[in-house]
Amino acid sequence: MIEQICSIAEQILADKTVDVVIGYEAGTRGAVRPAFIRSAAEAGRLVWNDACTHNLANYVREKHVSPKKGAPPAKVGVILKACDARALNVLLRDNQAPRADLYLIGVACQGMRQNSGFAGRDLGDLELRCQDCAERVPAGCDVVVGEAPAAGVAPASAIARELDRLAALSPAERQAFWDAEFARCLRCYACRQACPACYCVECTAEQLEPSWIGVAIRTPEKRFFHTMRAYHLAGRCAGCDECARVCPVGVRLDLLNAWFRREIEGTYGYRAGQDATTPAPLASFVPSESLDL
Amino acid sequence: MPDTPFEPRIVGFLCNWCSYAGANLAGTSRIRYEPNIRIIRVPCSGRVDPLFVARAFQEGADGGMVLGCHPGDCHYRDGNYYARRRFNLMHGFLDFLGIDERRLKIDWVSAAEGKRFAQVVSQFTDQVRDLGPATVRQPAVLGG
Amino acid sequence: MNFITDAQLRGWLAQLIAESTVIAPRRAGEDLLLYQPVEDPDAICYDFGRSTVSPREFFLPATEALLTVERVRQATAGDGATAGNARVAGQWEVKLTEPHLQHDQVLFAVRPCDVHALTALDALMLKEPADAYYAERRARTTLIGLACEQMGPSCFCTSLGLSPDDGAGMDVMLYRADGGYILEILTDKGRVALASQAPVDFEGSRPQRAWPEAAYQVPPRAVWTERFNDPYWASLAERCLSCKICSYICPTCRCFDVRDYTVAQAAGYQKIERLRCWDSCMAEGYRRIAGGHNPRAAKAQRLRNRFYCKFDYYPADFGPLACVGCGRCVDQCPVNVDITEVLQDVAAR
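^ inputs. structure came back:
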C-alpha cells in the first residue's frame, strides 16, 4: 500500500498537479506524525500503518489553500481515511475548502490504534471509532489505494455501549461524571485546534466583546465551553475523535460528540460528511416535521 | 440572613412578534402570572443560540425558556423551524450532562395568547420551584 | 541525614494534611498522574515517574483572583465620619480585597526538574518588583522532593546541566530506600515541617547514581541568533496545531492574561474580580495588540518563539534556561513536535 501511496504522491508532485502532499511520516521515538511533502524526491518519507490516526483534513482549510494576495492558491494533495474524508465533506459543504484545489488520496483503512501519534507510547487496542467503523474505504476521493476487507466488516458498537453505560447512571451520577471530566480540563483548546469542523476565525469561547464565557479556567467555564462546542458541532462532527486523542488529561470528548451524532442520526437519518452537499440538519428544516420539544 | 423560601430565577427568550407580544397582552389584560421570569426580547426564536440558554444557567438561572411563534406563523417565515430543530436536542443534551431537563421549556405562544402565556410561564415556574435551585454554576470539588 | 520508614512517612503526611494543604501525586486516570490536594496519605501515588501536568499551577494557578472590588455598605448620615473620610448618606463604601492563600502548602514528592523550574521562574517572578501572588505561594510552600531513581525515556535534564537526584531548591529531600526513604533536611522550613516527627539518624550517605551521558547539547545563544530566519521554523510549524498543550503542561511557562469581570450577587452586580489566567504564546491571538497588529500572526513565528524564549530570550534576560528537560512536551504533543529533535536540528544546521 505504501508503495502505491508514495508513487501517487511522487507523480502528482512531479507533474505539478499539487504543490504539497499532506500525509504521514515517521517521527521521533516511534511516533507517526503529519508530513508535508513538497517535492517528488521527498515522497519516500511517507508511511502508512496503524498509527496514522491524525485527521489530515484539519490542515486543508489552512493557508495552504488560501492564497496570499496576488498569489494563486496552492494545490494540495491530502491522504484521507474514511473518517477524514467525511470531515472533509463537511468542510466542502461549508465552503471552507476549495475542491478544485484539492487532490484527495483515499486510503482503505484497517483501523488505527490507541496511543497513536505520540512519542514513546506503546500502541494499544483499536480506537473505539475504528472498532465501530463500517466504512473503511473513503468516498469522494480522486484516487483510492487499497480495498475493503474481503471478509466484509463486522462493526462493533463500542461507543454506543459507552453512551448506554452513561445513560444508565442517575442524573446526579452523570453530572458528577461530567463535572470530574471538566474539572480536569486545562482549557488549552487542543480539542478545538485538532478539530476540522472548528474553523471559526474567532471562537465564541475566546470572544471578549461580548464575553460569552470569560477567560477563567474554572469548572463552570470549562463546562460551558465543552457544552457549547459540542452543540456547535452537532450534525457537523464526523467522529474522527481527534479531540479525545489530543486531550492531555483524557477528557471524554468523544462521548460528548458521540451523543449528538447518535441523536442526529436517529432523528434525521443524517451522518455528518455522508456527502458534500446535504445541508447540515441544524441549518435546515422541514416545515411539516413534528419534533419532540 | 432570614430564611426566605426558594424562588427560582427563570430566564425567558421571547420573540418580538409573537411571544413577547403575548406577554404584553397578558400584562394589559391584567392577567396574573408568576413574576419569576426575566424576559429577554429577541427578534425571532431562530435567533436563540442554545449557547444563550447555557449561559443563563451558567449565570445562575434555575430555569430557561424559549418561546416563539407557532410553526407556520413565524414573522420571518421560517426562523422558528430552525429553533425547533436546535432545541429539540437540548432537553436530551441537558439530561446527558446530568442536568434536569425539566429546567428547560420550549414552547409556542402567539401574540393573541395572553392567557396562554401566563399559563405556560406559571406552570413552568411552579415546575422549577419544585426542582429547587440549579447546581449548574457550582464548581466541582477537584480543581474547580 | 535521617531515615523515615513508609509507615512513619504516612504518619507525617497525615500530620501535614491536618495543618496545611498537602499537594501530592495521584493517579487521576489511565496514564494520567496529576499533583492534586489530598485528604488522605493513602490517596497518594508513591511509585511514579513524572506527572502528566507540571505542578506549577500551585505557584501560578490556572485562574486566580488578583483582587476583588465590592460595594458593600450604604453609609447613613452621621455614621462615624472622620476627617478625610467624610461619608454622605446614601454613599456606597468600596472595599478592595487582595486574596491570600487560606492555608500553607506542602508539595510532596516533587521532582528535581520541577523545583529547578521554580528556581528558574524565581529569576523573573521574584525580581523587583516581585509578583506578590507568586511570592506568597513560594514563601508559604514547603517542598518535599523525591529523587528520581532513573531517567524517563523523554527526560533530558542532564543535557541541561541538571541532575535527577539533586536536592537544590528543596526544603526536604527524599531518596527511596528499602522500607522507606533516606531523608535530608535542607532548610529551616524543612526542619519546621518535620518538627512533629522524629526520624532516626542515618549513618550512610545518599545513593549515588551514575546517570547516562547527556544525549543533547543546547546550542549557544549565538547559534540561535544565526538560525532565526531559517526556513526550518516554517516547515517545523506546518504540523503544529497551536493547541497550547506544550505551554500549559510546562513547568517553566508563565504567560498569563488579566481580565476584569463582574460577579453576580444577590444585590445585583456590585462585585468585580480581576482574574489572572494562563495564556500561551502558541495561541493565534496571544501577541495581538490594541489596534489589531499581530507580530506573531503566523504559526511558524509562534512556534519559533517558543524555543527562542526557552533557550535564548529568557536566559539573556534573567539567567537560567527556561527549560528543565522534563520531557512533558515531548510526551504530550499530538503531532510530535519534539524539543530534543529541535535542539539537534538547530545545532546541526
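Chain A has two domains: 2-145, 158-283. The mean pLDDT of chain A is 92.
thumbs up if we can close this ticket
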